[in-house]
Write a structure and sequence with these properties.
Rossmann fold; Beta-Lactamase; 16 strands; single chain; alpha/beta; Helicase, Ruva Protein, domain 3; elongated; 21 helices; Sigma 54-interacting transcriptional regulator; binds adenosine-5'-triphosphate; about 475 residues; nucleotide-binding; five-stranded antiparallel β-sheet; five-stranded parallel β-sheet; about 45% helix
């Protein structure tokens, strides 16, 4: 038999072995050490002479070499704690003429310095990996519970009760409500109160993802599905949310073509990645939300009727703030507490005038607007009491006129729009109203134009044109 080593002088063998493996040990069937190299002995704090012919368990802590020599089962890249460090070991049975005669073990890293270098590198990578793992897990967890939803008004309590009652089952939920009423909070709370609470909660904002990316975001794609596709493909959010809940925010903004694909997933309970052939089964509870009038959109052919019925199994309408004004003081206090935490402040209060003024406004931006108003007030506040002077102009300008409050409440119109004292040309009045509404929306959204356009329910282009027309920067 040609061993292939005959040409190599015998005294070279050991150096070759040492160069091939940093630390090496060979045992016989009984686990007695037949060979161990100097590097390994140095690391163990012993010498070759002392180690040879001794049971391997007496020389190497936590060894499994004697077990491999019996079972014949190799172990690759096993973590092996030695001297307080975790080494990486490979263990192979030695088989000669079909019989196990012993075992060979190697431990990576030539010297402690090399190990330390690797360890630092690996530790950094492991820490980074851990950071992203926790972040992903956190992002996939729902954050709010029903007890975080503030409000004691009968309408709000009834809504909350309904949501609590239906959270346990698996039916689709459709959350309807104006912008900033708390639809996302409700979605979180429903998931948290369900059997799926420990499983992923994935949020997709259908309005903020460009139409051409929405399909790959929802369903994923296979390797090479299109130019620019990530190597190895990508999981879609439906797969990420498997066994949990997916929250489809702004569902009314989902393009019609995508609506058909979503409907298919809801019916078949399976997805197909872009460029893929096979169907992948998914079990996901759907919670959808919109501030749009979906029924009207169905009539206008902008939203698929069949999808609407599928989503509308349980419909929860979240009341706007102006329809539960009695909740304003309580919500304001809750929001103040939250903001105090964010801004490291304590003991901030609202003056009674401010409370009255807050109750008077019609809050087109709902709780989000209220939160922005309070955040701005805290920012300009020196002492502890928020007074009228700390409110934005559009709220300061409101008159504490009860008749006006009653009127505006009845009609659900912003109370800043006061009837003109003198009759003016309709065109001028409309332009003023339009300009005021834009300024108010910008105020509510802290100058965010996209959000402001959304609040006003007009397109971005039209919004920019109007801003230009009225000289609003
Ligand atoms: N009942 C509530 N109690 C306390 N805070 C609330 C409540 N409802 C909403 N909020 C707060 O108001 C803000 C807006 O809520 P959320 O994002 O859930 O509204 P939304 O209806 O989903 O808005 P949009 O339609 O614009 O996405 C959040 O900061 C949220 O914490």
């Amino acid at each position: 038999m040609n061993l292939g080593m005959e040409g190599i002088p015998y005294n070279w063998h050991e150096q070759i072995i040492n160069l091939l493996a940093e630390r090496i040990v060979v045992v016989d069937r009984d686990g007695i050490i037949l060979y161990i190299n100097e590097a390994y002995c140095e690391f163990l704090g012993t010498t070759v002479e002392e180690a040879i012919n001794r049971p391997v368990q007496d020389v190497i802590e936590n060894t499994r070499m004697h077990i491999i020599a019996k079972t014949g089962q190799k172990e690759l890249a096993a973590v092996h704690p030695i001297n307080g460090s975790e080494m990486v070991a490979n263990r192979f049975p030695l088989v000669v003429n079909g019989e196990i005669v012993g075992a060979l073990g190697t431990v990576m890293f030539r010297n402690p310095e090399e190990w330390r270098m690797y360890k630092t590198k690996i530790q950094n990578l492991a820490e980074e990996l851990n950071y992203y793992k926790t972040k992903v897990e956190k992002d996939l967890k729902s954050k709010y519970h029903f007890n975080g939803l503030i409000g004691n008004s009968p309408t709000f309590l009834a809504t909350k009760k309904l949501a609590e009652r239906i959270s346990a089952n698996n039916s689709s939920v459709l959350l309807i409500g104006e912008s900033g009423t708390g639809k996302e909070l409700f979605a979180h709370a429903i998931h948290n109160n369900s059997m799926r609470s420990s499983l992923p909660f994935v949020t997709i904002n259908c309005a903020s993802i460009p139409e051409h990316l929405l399909e790959s975001e929802l369903f994923g794609y296979e390797d090479g599905a299109f130019t620019g596709a990530k190597k190895g493909g990508k999981k879609g959010q439906f797969q990420v949310a498997n066994n949990g809940t997916i929250f489809l925010d702004e569902i009314g903004d989902m393009p019609l073509a995508m609506q058909s694909k979503l409907l298919r997933v809801l019916q078949e309970k399976e997805i197909q990645r872009i460029g893929g052939q096979k169907s992948i089964a998914v079990d996901v509870r759907i919670i959808a939300a919109t501030h749009r009038d979906l029924e009207k959109m169905v009539e206008e052919g902008k939203f698929r009727q069949d999808l609407y019925y599928r989503l509308n199994v349980i419909k929860i309408e979240i009341p706007p703030l102006r329809k539960r004004k009695e909740d304003i003081p309580l919500i304001s206090l809750g929001l103040l507490k939250k903001l105090e935490g964010i801004f490291y402040r304590k003991g901030i209060e609202l003056s009674s005038d401010v409370i009255k003024r807050l109750m008077q406004h019609t809050w087109p931006g709902n709780i989000r607007e209220l939160e922005n108003v309070l955040e701005r007030a805290i920012n300009v506040l020196d002492g502890k009491i928020i007074d009228l002077a700390h409110l934005p102009l559009y709220l300061r300008d409101l008159e504490l006129d009860n008749t006006c409050v009653k009127e505006t409440n009845k009609e659900n119109k912003p109370s800043t729009i006061k009837p003109p004292l003198q009759v003016q040309p309709l065109k001028e009045t409309l332009a003023k109203v339009e300009k005021d509404s834009i300024l108010q929306a910008l105020d509510v959204t802290n100058g965010n134009k996209q959000e402001a356009a959304k609040l006003l329910e007009i397109g971005k282009t039209s919004f920019y044109e109007k801003c230009k027309l009225y000289g609003i920067n």
